[in-house]
Amino acid sequence: MICPCEKKGETSVVDSRPTEDGTAIRRRRMCVCGERFTTFERIQFRELMVVKKNGRKSAFDRDKLSKSIYIALKKRPIDTGTAEKFISKISRALEELGQSEISTSSIGTMVMEGLKELDPVAYVRFASVYRNFREEQDFVQFVDKIDVFKKK
Question: Residue 151 gets which letter from DSSP?
Answer without folding.
Answer: -
